[in-house]
Amino acid sequence: MKRRIGLSTWISRAIMAAALAGAVAFFVGFNRYAHEALTGPLGPPEVEAEAAVVLTGRSDARLRTGVALVERGQVGRLLISGVYRAATAPEVQAVSGGSDRVFACCIDLGKQADSTIGNALEVEDWVARHGVRRLVLVTETYHMPRALLEVRRAIPGVQVIPYGIREAPYDVPDAWSSQRVLRGLLLEYTKYLLVHARVVLRLPEELMSERSPA
User: Fold this and answer.
1) pTM of the shown model
2) Is residue 83 a part of any domain in this protein?
3) CATH number for position 93
4) Average pLDDT of 18-37?
5) Residue 24, domain member (yes or no)
6) Number of compact structural domains in the chain
7) Which phi and psi (to 5°) does residue 141 adopt?
8) Is 16 part of any domain?
9) Domain for residue 1, yes or no?
10) What is the pLDDT of residue 205?
């Protein structure tokens, strides 16, 4: 005589199956994300646009890259978003390089943002004021997926071109073997998934109160 399987057993099995499927999906997605972050293409060298935005964070290379785009005439104006509020233009120039002429005419310092959500809001206001329709987004490759989600959500009518850079510790051949790198990638991928869920479900931004440097 066959033993009947109770409802609670079916529910338990369904929960376990869903958990396993979720874990597999997370692992596959993380593997794809990490591969792109560590080995994917960087910013296109011939990119051109009306303007660019740099999202500040752990790397000063972001600043140098954005200012260089202006110096080479590839973009006409640059917003550096998330600048420390007490920082002066000469201090930012000392870190990022760039001529006095370029800093006087073409570079704006945004000091209101302290998160990626804040960056997107700062970009939204700046783009509207300057009538930008094509924007280059400069940040590091590990941060780019989440940054693109936030910025494209904030300025849906503007073409946003990703310009990724890669700096230490993410730019070395054996980066996969570094626990620091893996922890950083896992944290950033988790943030990306949360932002993706918030955007898809149209949840309020207050649910993402991330304050750590990107």
Assistant:
1) 0.87
2) yes
3) 3.40.50
4) 90
5) no
6) 1
7) -60, -35
8) no
9) no
10) 63
